[in-house]
Amino acid sequence: MKTRTFFAALSLGFLASCAQMSHHEAIQNPAIRKAAQSARTRSDHDALTKYFEHAADEMQAKAEEQRKLLQQYEEKSYLYGREAQDLISHTTALVRKYGETSQENRKEAALHRQMALEQGQSDSTAPSGKMAGAAFAEEPRKSN
What we know:
Elements: H1 2-17, H2 23-28, H3 30-38, H4 42-75, H5 84-125, H6 129-135
Helix pairs in contact: 4-5
């Protein structure tokens, strides 16, 4: 009985500790939202790309942890008694949520990566100050 109670408490504690912000919640985060809206330079978009890739990796790791836990619940449901089905359905929902959030973060990272590349291309094709001035400089007039 003590072992069963211990596993149930441990499992519920683990599930509660794994709750993380979803992509939509991250965008609702004022700092991230402001950074995404004010991104103008290549380095801004590169930083956002890294942020979203890191968030996607974290979500993927959490999904994997939940998959392992789900496997434990399914294989040894007798340890969890009546709560087994609830734990299985809750963990299945978390696996799905973390997987979807990971995909959304990867899409957001790809979007910012593309914007960074476009920004880098526009920066490299823009004429420098000297060349821009030289292109519009008047040719010297020949005096007669």
